[in-house]
Amino acid sequence: MESALQSPGNSTQDAQSRALEWRISPGLVAYEEAVAAMEARVAAIRDGTAPELVWLLEHPPLYTAGTSADPAELLDSARFPVYQTGRGGRHTYHGPGQRVVYVLLDLKRRGPDVRGYVANLEEWVIRTLAACGVTGEKRDGRIGIWVERRDPVFGMREEKIAAVGVRVRRWVTYHGISLNVAPDLTHFTGIVPCGISEHGVTSLKALGKSADMATVDAALKKNFFDVFGA
Predict the structure, then answer these.
(1) What percentage of the chain reaches a pLDDT higher than 70?
(2) C-alpha span between 112 and 115 (Å, rounded)
(3) pTM for the whole structure
(4) Cα–Cα distance between 69 and 178 in angstroms, integer?
(5) pLDDT value at residue 4
(6) What tens digit of pLDDT does each residue of 205-227 get?
(7) Which residues pair with 213 in a beta bridge?
(8) Catalytic residue at 194?
């Protein structure tokens, strides 16, 4: 079910990619299956029996509830399956057309700095969006990456295009980021995404960008090594 497809790159990037596993799974991966695989891989990385992993996939439509989730922000619990998860944050949506990236890194080796790690995840997304022609930005007090666009009715609006939710176990990271490439944005209406009701959500497609998943994946790979190194 899983593949270790590599996007084209230069010899330096190829050498870097061999220091960890870069995995792209075709089709839709069940959430429980992904979590079980991450749990096992975290233990193996910690024990030194497996390399670090960056895992790119898509899930079937579902909602997840992080450790800070407010039950009142789950507006339609019957719409899609809801999973309690150990990552930080509140409610999020995952589904087809959204690139989910699970990042399993050894921070004991790379540097035991969780805040710095999250900042690197955000920078990674911002650089990837720039490669797709979109200006992504961070906002104080709001997790994730945001874009500004002009609405013909409401004027300038801020909308979220990528979410960040991490967990760290004995200095090995897991969970990660989700980037809206071309999901059904109406699926987000069953929750208050990340607890923020005053701003909307968007995607590359909604912004008029033609980037497909393969293009996004190539940008993710290049910019991962630019931000995180080997």
Answers:
(1) 90
(2) 9
(3) 0.88
(4) 17
(5) 34
(6) 999 998 899 999 999 999 999 99
(7) none
(8) yes
Residue 169's φ and ψ, nearest 5 degrees, are: -120, 115
* 151 class by beta-carbon count within 10 Å (0-12 exposed, 13-18 middle, 19+ buried): exposed
* Residue closest to 132 by CA, chosen among 185, 69, 210, 18: 210
Transcribe the chain into DSSP letters. Answer: --B-------HHHHHHHTTEEEEEEEEE--HHHHHHHHHHHHHHHHHTSS-EEEEEEE--SEEEE-TT--GGGB--TTTS-EEE-SSSSSEEEE-TTEEEEEEE-BHHHH-S-HHHHHHHHHHHHHHHHHHTT---EEETTEEEEEEEEEETTTEEEEEEEEEEEEEEETTEEEEEEEEESS--GGGGGGB-GGG--SSEE--TTTTT----HHHHHHHHHHHHHHHH--
Weakest-pLDDT range from 142-156, 173-187, 211-225: 142-156
Percent of the chain at pLDDT exceeding 90: 70
On average, the pLDDT of the chain sits at 88
How large is the average pLDDT for residues 191-210?
A: 83
Catalytic position from the list 29, 37, 103, 194:
194
